[in-house]
Design brief:
CATH superfamily: NAD(P)-binding Rossmann-like Domain
Distance between the termini: 35 Å
Largest sheet: 2 strands, parallel
Number of domains: 1
Order of helices and strands: HHEEHEEEHEEHEHHHH
Helix content: 40-55%
Radius of gyration: 17 Å
Strand content: 5-15%
Shape: globular
Number of helices: 9
C-alpha cells in the first residue's frame, strides 16, 4: 500500500503493472507478484556472493542500513502456487520473507552461514563510481517490504528468518 519509489526499477515495476491494467479493467483477477531477492542454493545472487564471502571478503554495502527484502526459492514457488489457488488474492503481492533485514544484518547472517568473518565495508561512493545508477537503486537503496497480504491470506513460510533461509540454501545437501 506504500507509494512507488523513484528511479528505473520503480518505473519498470509501474510500467509492468500498468500493462496488465486492461485485464483488471475487464474483470480478470490479476496478481502483481513483487518479488524480493530470491535465495537459492545455486546461481542467482548467492551464486555471485558465495565465492566472495567464502574467501573472507564479504562486506557491508554503504551504510548497511538499507533493507534487503529476501525470500527463498522454495517459498517463492510455494507463494506463487498459493496465489494461483486462492481466488481471493489479487493486486500487489509482496513475495518476500516475513522478517525483513538490513544489508548489515544480511551480511552478518551470510557470514555466519558460511562460517566466514564479515568485517569489511564497501563504501557507497565506490559502488556508485563503479556501477552508477544500479548501485544507488539496486545495492544502496532498499525497501522494507512485508508480505502482509500473503500472510493475511494464510500462507505459511518454511523459512521465516534470514538465518533459517541462509542455513537452508547454504546446506551442503541443498540443491
Amino acid at each position: 500500500q506504500s507509494p512507488a519509489g523513484a528511479g528505473f526499477l520503480a518505473r519498470l515495476c509501474l510500467d509492468w503493472e500498468s500493462a496488465a491494467r486492461p485485464a483488471v479493467d475487464a474483470g480478470t483477477r490479476v496478481v502483481f507478484a513483487r518479488s524480493g531477492l530470491v535465495l537459492a542454493p545455486a546461481g542467482g545472487m548467492l551464486g555471485r556472493m558465495r565465492p566472495i564471502f567464502g574467501v573472507g571478503l564479504g562486506a557491508r554495502l554503504g551504510s548497511g542500513r538499507q533493507y534487503m527484502p529476501w525470500i527463498t526459492l522454495e517459498d517463492e514457488v510455494r507463494a506463487l502456487l498459493f496465489a494461483l489457488n486462492h481466488s481471493d488474492l489479487s493486486g500487489p503481492l509482496n513475495l518476500t520473507g516475513p522478517a525483513p533485514v538490513t544489508n548489515s544484518e544480511f551480511t552478518e547472517a551470510l557470514g555466519r552461514a558460511l562460517h566466514r568473518p564479515t568485517p569489511l565495508l564497501m563504501p557507497g561512493f565506490a559502488l556508485r563510481a563503479a556501477l552508477g545508477e544500479f548501485a544507488s537503486e539496486g545495492l544502496l537503496g532498499g525497501q522494507r517490504a512485508i508480505p502482509a497480504a500473503l500472510e493475511d491470506a494464510g500462507f505459511e513460510f518454511h523459512q521465516r528468518t534470514i538465518g533459517e533461509a541462509l542455513s537452508y540454501v547454504t546446506a551442503p545437501n541443498a540443491a
